[in-house]
Write a structure and sequence with these properties.
Elements: H1 2-21, E1 42-58, E2 63-81, E3 84-95, E4 98-103, E5 108-128, E6 131-148, E7 151-171, E8 174-192, E9 195-213
Antiparallel strand pairs: 1-2, 1-9, 2-3, 2-4, 3-5, 4-5, 5-6, 6-7, 7-8, 8-9
Length: 214
């Protein structure tokens, strides 16, 4: 009996010591997975469609207006530092802008037809994750044809273009945009039979585009 009492006392003290040293593990806090922010860095290429409103000026103070659809392709490269996005972009396209008016010097109606155009521009924007607000500006070139009383002549005009827009990432590799551009082109001489007309023009353009990011 004495031996049993001693063994019982030892067992009780051992259980008490083990209970004091026991460590109860707490459940780990659930991890929170934050969504990755979209990055605009990299090359891209796409196509656009739009509508142009043009105003043509002529020597002698006369001018006339025109409008029509435009379309083409664009490509560029973006770099991103924090929310600041910057890069270069080029575009090339075709125009069916048709304009007509009256030439005071000749006393005859004059018409204008647009054709190919393009630009090389810098872009600067501010990104809100997958939304990009941007401004753009650079060099522009456009071909144009004037016609008067059965005679016509073509010229290539150089100038500048500036604009702004918003771009949104639809997926990781696809983005859409809406853009406004203003372009101003130098005057060139058109030889139309016995009449020489000096004409330049400016234009307002609204464009929508879709691009793949590589």
């Amino acid at each position: 009996m004495r031996i049993l009492s001693v063994l019982g006392a030892l067992a009780a003290s051992t259980a008490s010591a083990l209970g004091a040293d026991a460590v109860f593990e707490q459940d780990a806090a659930p991890s929170v997975s934050l969504p990755a922010l979209y990055t605009w860095t990299g090359p891209y290429a796409g196509g656009f469609v739009g509508y142009n409103f043009s105003n043509f000026d002529q020597s002698g103070g006369a001018d006339f207006d025109g409008e029509g659809f435009v379309g083409g392709v664009y490509a560029g490269y973006n770099l991103q530092t924090d929310q600041l996005v910057y890069g270069l972009e080029a575009d090339i396209g075709g125009s069916d802008v048709d304009a007509g008016g009256f030439n005071n010097a000749a006393g005859l109606p004059v018409g204008s037809d647009g054709n190919a155009f393009g630009s090389l521009r810098a872009r600067l924007g501010w990104a809100y994750d997958s939304i990009l607000l941007f401004a753009t500006g650079g060099l522009a070139v456009s071909g144009n044809e004037l016609s008067l009383a059965g005679a016509d002549d073509q010229n290539t005009h150089f100038g500048y273009t500036v604009g702004a827009g918003v771009e949104a990432a639809v997926t990781d590799n696809l983005s859409s945009r809406l853009e406004y551009r203003y372009s101003d082109f130098e005057s060139k001489d058109y030889n139309l039979g016995n009449v020489t007309i000096s004409s330049g023009f400016d234009e307002h353009s609204i464009r929508a585009g879709l691009a793949l990011k590589f």
